[in-house]
Amino acid sequence: MACERCGAEAPTRRVSFYRNIGLLLFRLTESTECRLCKPCVHQVYWQYMLINVTLGWWGAISIILTPLIIISNTIQYLMCLGMATAPNHPVGDESLKTALESDSHEVARSKSHMSGETAECPFCRTQVSVTEQGSCPSCQATL
Known about the structure:
Layout: E1 12-22, E2 27-37, H1 38-55, H2 62-80, H3 99-115, E3 118-120, E4 127-129
Antiparallel strand pairs: 1-2, 3-4
Helix pairs in contact: 1-2
């Protein structure tokens, strides 16, 4: 079955992960409720865990709700650890790239225009011509 996040044909499991940002009197919430492959489960869980642990506590309701969300997310995550990863899963593709990595491509692209003719791919460290558009010729990462 296809992962609803990255589209990979891999074993998936239906999960529900929640994110909470506590404000003094309000909360900002987000949830991911879909069928995910194992790499996407890891990515969503850790992104939400980081936000819940750092920003989840700062509200009257959130101080009580955030520990429950963390426990719920962790139970969902632990239930997915035994899942198999498809051998042809696009590990280097969108399923495992974080926003930080995609930002590094933007930085590399902007530096390449400033520095002249070549830039270094932030993933494989190959020198790439500024005139090449699309992807790195060595690692196929999107530039």
